[in-house]
Design goal:
It is built from 7 helices and 4 strands, in the order βααβααβααβα. By secondary structure, it is an alpha+beta fold. The radius of gyration is 14 Å and the shape is globular. Bound molecules: inosine-5'-diphosphate and magnesium ion (MG).
Length: 135
């Protein structure tokens, strides 16, 4: 397995609830290393670009409102198989389906407030890291 980098977002619901430290601890506990970090007040343009794949979905407006509602902590995390490891650590998209032990399974209740974003493939990671950190 290759060393990878992935984009993690600690989203506004997590920041508002004071969960940034708890969430970061879980990623660091798995051995992922913080390579870069930025506290971002996401504007509409960045939100729409980041979530472009969901532009036609019925929940897109709600999703953009959510991610622009407060500060987001953006992280570039690095490690062996970082993309899949981070997704497993985060858990299923809908907190109702997320396994106990995962971030969403332990700390989230219902969508869209599922606390964290993680890149879902090497192609997404490359695109998203460029978008949030300029490559
Ligand atoms: P992911 O974050 O697990 O990759 P995606 O399917 O890429 O999940 O969806 C992006 C985000 O959009 C989710 O994390 C969640 O915040 C929100 N979302 C997804 N599906 C719904 C929905 O059906 N209703 C409301 N929000 C949703
Ligand atoms: Mg996604």
């Amino acid at each position: 397995m290759a060393v990878e980098r992935t984009l993690i977002l600690i989203k506004p619901d997590a920041m508002a609830r004071g969960l940034a430290g708890e969430i970061l601890r879980r990623f660091e506990g798995r051995g992922l290393v913080i390579q870069d970090a930025r506290l971002v007040r996401v504007d509409r343009a960045l939100a729409e670009e980041h979530y472009a794949e969901h532009a036609e979905k019925p929940f897109f407006g709600e999703l953009v409102s959510f991610i622009t509602s407060g500060p987001t902590l953006a992280l570039a995390l690095e490690g062996e198989g970082a993309i899949a490891i981070a997704r497993a650590t985060i858990g299923a998209t809908d907190p109702a389906d997320a396994a106990p032990g995962s971030i969403r399974g332990d700390l989230a209740l219902a969508m869209p407030d599922n606390l964290v974003h993680g890149s879902d493939s090497p192609e997404s990671a490359e695109r998203e890291l460029t978008l949030w950190f300029g490559g």
